[in-house]
What we know:
Blueprint: H1 2-67, H2 70-73, H3 77-87, E1 93-99, E2 104-107, H4 124-131, E3 137-138, E4 142-143, E5 150-160, E6 163-173, H5 178-183, E7 191-195, E8 201-204, H6 208-211, H7 218-226, E9 230-235, E10 241-248, E11 255-261, H8 262-294, H9 299-314, H10 326-404, H11 408-431, E12 443-445, H12 447-453, H13 455-459, E13 466-472, E14 479-481, H14 483-500, E15 505-516, E16 525-534, H15 541-546, H16 564-574, E17 578-584, E18 588-596, E19 620-624, H17 628-640, E20 644-648, H18 651-659, E21 666-670, H19 679-689, E22 695-699, E23 712-715, H20 720-733
Parallel strand pairs: 13-15, 19-20, 19-21, 21-22, 22-23
Antiparallel strand pairs: 1-2, 1-6, 3-5, 4-5, 5-6, 7-8, 7-11, 9-10, 10-11, 12-14, 15-16, 16-18, 17-18
Helix pairs in contact: 1-8, 8-9, 9-10, 10-11, 10-17, 14-16
Amino acid sequence: MRIRTRLLILILAILIPALLAAVLAVWYVYQEERRAQETSVKEAVRAFTLLVDNELEIREGILRTLANSPALARGDLDTFYRHAHSVVPRGETAILLLDRDGHQLLNTRVAPGEPLPPGRSSNLDVLMKRDGADRTLVSDLFVSSISQRHAVAIQVPVHVDGTLRYFLAMSMNAAQLQALLGEQRFPAEWQAAIIDRTGRLIARSIDPDQYRGRSVSDVALAQFAANREGVFSNRNLAGIPVQAFFSTVPSSNWKVLVSIPTEDLRRVPLHAAAFLAAIMAVMLVLASVAARWFARRAAIPIEYLGRSAADLGAGREVHYRPQGIVEIDAVAQRMAEASRQILTAQADLEQRVAEAVAASERAQSALIRGQKLEALGRLTGGIAHEFNNLLQTLTTALQIASLTANQPKVLSLIDTCKRTVSRATALTTRLGSFGRVQDARLLTVDPGEQVRGSVQLLRGVLRQGTRMEVQCADDLWPVTLDPVQFDLALLNLAINARDAMPDGGRLAVDVRNCTLEPTMERTGGDYVRVSVTDTGTGMPPDVLARALDPFFTTKPPGQGSGLGLPQAYAFATQSRGWLTLSSTVGAGTTIEIYLPRSLQPLSAVAARADGQAPGRGGGRVLFVEDDPLVREAVVRGLEDCGFDVMVAPDGDKALAMLDAGLDADVVFSDIVMPGKVSGIELAGILHERRPGLPVVLATGYTDQRAVIPGVQVLAKPYEIDQLVELLANLSGGR
């Protein structure tokens, strides 16, 4: 009895601290699970905020494009009405043009000639007085005077010759923003909402039509006024206690609110804590029963069993040692087995969780990076398109002028202008780095020759004391890419390597073939790997994680744009390949670009002497171009070279002329034009109606790809002698 009593006292002394430790462990698990859940919801709300902001920026981009309309600049409101009416989505969206006093000049919901509403239905007038008129403004929720539905409006100023002339606004039904809520796939119990500056609901994931236009609670309004993002407890409009997470949309100061029922928010951590508590309770009960059962036998086996139980509870492996008592040995053996299973399951669970977290982080990073690059590509691509039209006019006019002028001073000035246009052309090529790949600039090249041709360019940016090594394997596979963007990507990588090696070092460029197996993240097949390695300072993990984000840089202000690595990443992606980045602090950085093997023959690059006079041609050319400056310059150049040129301002007019009986030997058309028929669509129609009629397309920048058989594409700005030679061959063959 004395031994049993002592053992019981010892058991109680062990069980009571173990019970307290279990309670603390359960409480710790509950708190950690709750914090992790709140962090996850906050990140989801921020991502949704960026999605709403991106949607508003897309609408703003449409308005900015319309604001640059030539018809609007010359005051041709009828033409601009037709253009705007064809651009905006039908039904729930309208384009409004207002003068500086706020009077409507046109409204795509109102037919020309019908009375227009007197002014704005939104609070844009108040916002202009507060924030200024010469900027993009996003209204709060209002009721449209025409559709009598809740709507929001976006307004941009329109400048003509540097002077504010009009205001261009887009009014859209607030219900259109419901699609953004559906894309988030929030749980059914969560309530997501978009709220304007005054606290009124614009869109809501649950019963949107019932609650649209209603104001949120005073508690929410106070939180919105005090913080740009945060969390607070409240009751939603249905009276349910919720935990509310909110964030601010940057471009409009709207709020994005996600309300989660308090009961649902607590459920996951409570389940995790309860599961852990149940496991610990079972373990403690089993230990207590076993200890009491075997307390009558002997102290040493029981102590051994107690130590085994403690090891199991602490997560340590239990090693089985026979004690000579069948019951104790059986329990000890089972505990040892259980400890191995628990440790194996724990290791497997940790590995799966780590893989899932890593995959989620990679997917989220790729999504955000892709959205940034897409937005940047749309902006720079539009600018490149407009600049290429201007450069096309200058290129053609300067070449014609150089052939007609005979004064040395004039010829010298023309040559200077040509060099300036060449620099501007290179600049627009860089602007297109983040846009979609342009078919007219694609060539199938030997990657080794391309890299060797860039060596001198790369050496020019390196510091003295930096050793450059270039290794190109034999029999490299051809690749199809934009050579200018490839050279620019290598140049950006060399500049980054130079900045990482302030005291000099080694820059190694290695090019070789490789065959890869398919994975979840990429397709397999034959690739050419271009590896660029430096011996610089390297990047820590936090910098490495953001190195491919546009505009992210660790350099001081004014010394880095943050677009070097993103341009190389965009080039690899546009070339249907990918880029990998690895770096070690103090050891250096390696960037690998994988380019898919091309089955096309190497492209022939024709050499042309500078200042060469264009050849002669003949036949009738139907020239389709909406830019009057480009039309004037190119028509003059073609006529001087012997062509009979007929002009159409757009694809609709060109089809009408051909249907009316116009006999043309070749059609030369721009791709991006106003109207219903683009250049690519015109080529497709002619391929069906007149399969023997040659078609040549020109592009400054476009998201479309010309995949029509026999259609050739010229990149703007093109030389007039290049165009004359191509048209002469096509018209002569016909």
